[in-house]
Fold this protein.
Amino acid sequence: MPSQGTIGDRVRGLRLNRRMSQAQLAGPDLSDSYVSLIESGKRTPTPVVARLLAERLGCTTEFLLHGIEPRQRIDTELGLRHAELELQHGDPSIAADRFTEIVKAADEENAMLTAQARFGRARALEAQGRLGQAVEAFERLRREAAAHPERLADLPLTIALSRCYQRAGDRLRARDLAAAALAQAERLSITRGELATDLAAALIEARGDRESDSPELAYVRRVLDTTGAPEVVDRSGEIQALWHASAAAAAGEDSALAVRLADDAIMAGRQTRLSLQLARIAMHWARMATAPIEEAERLIAGAVKAFSVFPGTTREHGESLIVHARVKLRAADRAGASELATTALGLSHDRSGTTAAEARLVLATIALDGHGDATAHLQEAHQLLDTLDRPVFGTDRQAARCWRELGDLYGRVGSRAQQTAAYRKALEAAGVRSAMAGVTMDATVSR
């Protein structure tokens, strides 16, 4: 188990245990006053001095500096990797428990490992939809990052917070945080890689669908132009095999090999995660009314293809089909829009999302544009929205849009009472209690 206390505590404890004076520990190379300063915490030994002290105290340099032996440290590193694999490809609740165990086992002298575990736990809370607890954890980590930049990076924390506030309904706070992250990324010229992709996703999610020109959208465009259309290859079998092999190596006491195999599993899943994130960015971009039709068509087609690969992205697959159908409507391709909306209906088997209702709204719009009867589709959309399950990650805002669109369509068919009722529902959906205590919701309904 990790040793408690500071470097100075360990130096003093080991010295006294070996019945050495400070002068004896200092020897001919150091002064006894310097040893006293180290023990009191007023000086931190350099790597050279730490190695010298460790030799005289009969311990490893790793133990003296970090409070854990090399084997214990590699076991902690392995625990972090397995928790990360659980978060990305398993059960986020189990991941949260594993990260928490690492935090409890570590101490202040292992600040980097502890910080990684706490960041992992916050992301696991977010993945479970426990947004209030996730925000609290991210905010606390961000305050610590300001005080200890050598331990924690502020940029990924700011991006994560923007994402959480957006999903909780506080769009103003989400936008402020995304803007702060953008300023830092621009200063460092970060336009590629995982951080750039996550930032672009946070920026586009926090923008309105009718915005067309802003520094935020310019950055998103640079990321999209740099990376191109998202392509996803299902490597889940390879990831699971490497993960199981790592666990087997750990059980056989081969920790170094277990870490290597876990790293391989994490890297195998990284490209998929980035591609899916790019697909989300592309979907949000194509949804903007100001996006050129040809560009929107190209981006959303790539997103649909990416989401179709994995069973775990069925909801997003359906959502992307709806966005694609709306792009087709903008291009006056009613047949294409109808086909996509009908396909989306076949994917929507739950009541926690708006995909089925949006598909009905698209079909109603097609019927009205072709001078057909939209009544059945409008009634079905109304019923689906009325029976919508508890909102998940931004569904309140999506539901508000759907009710607003339903009201517009009721107006087109002359159902004034139904139109008024739908608009009232839109306002209620936009103003519902946030998913996170203390968060003020932005009640604007984007049309």
Observations:
- The domain at 7-66 is CATH 1.10.260.40 (434 Repressor (Amino-terminal Domain)).
- DSSP finds 22 helices and no strands in the chain.
